[in-house]
């Protein structure tokens, strides 16, 4: 058994860097190499920042489901405490402690997570679908409007998936456009500060500026509550402070925007590569093969924990290799069909509380686009698309396409959303909310237009809903 100092210094196998373009280009090859060392192996999150990557499915589940052994609070990490990992750096930004549920454990985690879970439970899937369709419709109109000048080309990541995820989040979170613009500016400043690294004072100032902007929004929602996540969190009986609310809001934004647009882009890539999958299945396949948070589930052992032939040292980050574990469980496409056992939503106490809404957003985003623009095609072969380097996320750098017509093709337009308040702000208080996955499109497809190139799933009929419910029951969901 290798000791806690496995890695170059301890004479163990060399640590694989997870931050290089080579890793981003072919993570599967790195996972395969690491798997030969056992279910857990040494990696680096940044130059000189050691961690352990768990590549085995059973072992990954063990980490996620053992809060008595593996905790979220990064204040246990000596390298962060002693400044080896500067707090003002990309890794420091991602892994520092904040007063939200994601870096909390035990009763404190439960208290903060309950507020998010209860707010998400009030999201009405029908309203969410209408919001996505409405925002997607506006972005597609803009793509068509620019088509004459762009030669029918666009980058579906920058021109569709990214703005769509942000617009949808702003609407469901209760962030009107004027606030959203100020928040985005402050968040961009924070990211730049941390990417440049170094100056702790600049890092503090950037955080203070962002939190001040979120506090303005909280004050607005407390004055005029709406049917939105922030208002629901603010009025929750847990009575969060403004600081807790601000960080919970930031946490929601950080999960609801980047992973969401990465999932939409990864699913569109599969659909446009022409493997003939229905949209909902392409979203699921992307979760299996290009998990947006491939390395984001980081935990800290409370003591040295043996795993396979190695030991996970107390306090050293353990990265649950979501993508690696998915690949171990179901390497062949046949083993993935109709199977939702992937770890792309995490598992255990910190597992994603928003998987229903997130699936719905991705599915409706892809359906709406492909219905309106059936001639879309990848501008380069799928295998030539570039992925961004970074240990935490699986993210396409761009998704260039052709085939956008200069005028809308004949055919049905998505119904105008009813969820839109006249001022672009949050909706009316008291609107009923639903939760869970009930609003997900089923896979009926019976009303598929003849000759359609993509197997777009339309709003489910009663029969299709029943079939979908049966299928879910069959899969044990
Ligand atoms: C579409 C893509 C999404 C993916 C792939 C995803 C995946 C995940 C994963 C893997 C975790 C657990 C991470 C860990 O164990 O460290 C997680 C947690 C979380 N997700 Fe999601 N998520 C997505 C979308 C969303 C959305 C849309 C929201 C909110 C609106 C959200 C809110 C959260 C929150 C608050 C947590 C932390 C829960 C806790 O600490 O108890 N996620 N997500």
TrEMBL record:
**What InterPro entries is this protein classified in?**
Cyt_P450_B (IPR002397), Cyt_P450_sf (IPR036396)
Recorded hits in Gene3D superfamilies, A to Z, give: Cytochrome P450 (1.10.630.10)
Instruction: Please give the name of this protein.
Output: Cytochrome P450
Family, per entry = Belongs to the cytochrome P450 family.
Q: Which organism was this protein described from?
A: Streptomyces aidingensis
Query: What would you give as a GO molecular function for this chain, any one?
Result: heme binding
Q: Where is the composition biased (Gly residues)?
A: 439-448
Where in this protein does the record put region Disordered?
Answer: 1-21, 331-350, 406-458
């Amino acid at each position: 058994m290798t000791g806690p100092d496995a890695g170059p210094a301890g004479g163990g196998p060399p640590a694989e860097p997870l931050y290089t373009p080579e890793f981003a280009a072919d993570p599967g090859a790195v996972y395969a190499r690491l798997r030969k060392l056992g279910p857990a192996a040494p990696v680096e999150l940044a130059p000189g920042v050691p961690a352990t990557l768990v590549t085995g499915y059973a072992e990954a589940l063990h980490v996620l489901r053992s809060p008595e052994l593996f905790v979220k609070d990064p204040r246990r990490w000596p390298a962060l405490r002693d400044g080896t990992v500067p707090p003002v750096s990309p890794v420091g930004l991602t892994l520092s402690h904040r007063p939200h549920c994601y870096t909390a454990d035990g009763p404190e985690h439960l208290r903060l997570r309950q507020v998010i879970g209860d707010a998400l439970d009030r999201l009405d899937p029908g309203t969410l679908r209408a919001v996505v369709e409405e925002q997607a419709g506006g972005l597609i109109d803009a793509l068509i409007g620019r088509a004459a000048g762009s030669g029918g080309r666009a980058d579906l990541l920058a021109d569709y998936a990214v703005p769509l995820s942000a617009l949808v989040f702003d609407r469901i979170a209760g962030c009107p456009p004027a606030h959203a613009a100020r928040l985005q500016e402050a968040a961009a400043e924070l990211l730049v500060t941390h990417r440049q690294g170094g100056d702790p004072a600049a890092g503090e100032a950037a955080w203070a500026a962002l939190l001040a902007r979120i506090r303005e929004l909280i004050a607005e929602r407390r004055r005029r509550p709406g049917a939105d996540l922030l208002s629901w969190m603010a009025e929750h009986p847990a009575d969060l402070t403004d600081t807790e609310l601000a960080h919970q809001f930031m946490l929601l934004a950080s999960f609801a925007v980047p992973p969401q647009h990465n999932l939409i882009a990864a699913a569109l890539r599969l659909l446009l590569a022409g493997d003939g999958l229905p949209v909902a299945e392409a979203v699921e396949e992307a979760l299996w093969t290009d998990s947006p948070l491939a390395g984001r589930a980081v935990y800290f052992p409370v003591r040295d924990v043996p795993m396979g032939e190695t030991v996970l040292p107390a306090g050293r980050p353990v990265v649950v290799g979501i993508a690696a574990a998915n690949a171990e469980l179901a390497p062949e496409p046949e083993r993935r069909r109709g199977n939702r056992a992937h770890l792309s939503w995490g598992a255990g106490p910190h597992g994603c509380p928003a998987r229903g809404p997130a699936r719905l957003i991705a599915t409706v985003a892809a359906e709406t686009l492909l219905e309106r623009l059936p001639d879309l095609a990848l501008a380069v072969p799928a295998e030539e698309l570039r992925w961004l380097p970074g240990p935490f996320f699986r993210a396409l750098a761009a998704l260039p396409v052709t085939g956008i017509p200069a005028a809308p093709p004949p055919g049905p337009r998505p119904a105008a959303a009813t969820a839109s308040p006249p001022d672009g702000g949050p909706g009316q208080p008291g609107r009923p909310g639903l939760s869970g996955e009930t609003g997900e499109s089923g896979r009926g497809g019976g009303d598929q237009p003849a000759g359609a190139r993509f197997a777009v799933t339309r709003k489910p009929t009663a029969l299709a809903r029943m079939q979908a419910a049966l299928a879910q029951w069959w899969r044990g969901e």
